Amino acid sequence: TERTLVLVKPDGVSRGLVGEVITRLERKGLRLVAAELRTLDRETAETHYAEHRERPFFADLVEFITGGPLMALVVEGPRAIEAFRALAGATDPVKAGPGTIRGDFALEVQNNIVHGSDSPESAEREVTLFFPNLA
Ligand code: GTP
Ligand code: MG
User: Fold this and answer.
1) 85 marked as binding residue
2) 118 alpha carbon to ligand 2 midpoint, in Å?
3) Can you list the alpha helix ranges (DSSP code H) found in 9-133?
4) pLDDT tens digits, residue range 43-70?
5) Does 131 show up as a binding residue in the annotation?
């Protein structure tokens, strides 16, 4: 079994899609381990997205992810990292297939509803960043 950090980003929360995301991952067979609605401070957001620090969209991304409450989830199951990223679909929602969260609910690359850790190393780092008591 494996753990991954899932975020319902501020666009997903403001559009009322928290339940939809949780329903989809639970239906898939993944299990919730932790959940918290919170607004990220700038420092946590910059740490979370540190790999994108040099990208031209970094400032916009930090503004977006700190711009309202998000739902942070720790999700567990066999190959949970890959399983959730398959549910999420491609980063660019226009390229994400129908039936995926991004494919069904989003149109713009930044405002793509969800985040899911992309590797075991990222998952461990991100779970610890959001939920230090689960480390
Ligand atoms: P995350 O699960 O959120 O990490 O998405 P990802 O792994 O599918 O994509 P990636 O890590 O490459 O990018 C992180 C996030 O930055 C994306 O999910 C988008 O919200 C945002 N992003 C990516 N590319 C662009 C871009 O070209 N412009 C803008 N404004 N935002 C982008
Ligand atoms: Mg990523």
Assistant:
1) yes
2) 6
3) 10-14, 18-28, 42-48, 58-65, 80-88, 101-105, 120-130
4) 999 999 999 999 999 999 999 999 999 9
5) no
Smallest Cα–Cα separation from 114: which of 128, 100, 125, 124?
100
Catalytic residue among 87, 115, 117, 126: 115
Virtual torsion, Cα 100, 101, 107, 108, nearest 10 deg = -110
Enumerate the domain spans of the chain: 2-134
Task: Return the CATH fold of 2-134.
Answer: Alpha-Beta Plaits (3.30.70)
Residues 71/18, Cβ–Cβ less than 8 Å: yes
Token couple for 30: 């993944």
Measured between alpha carbons, how far apart are the two ends of the chain, in Å? 16
Average pLDDT, the chain: 98
pLDDT in tens, 112-127: 999 999 999 999 999 9
Task: List the residue whose alpha carbon is closest to atom 1 of ligand 1.
Answer: 115
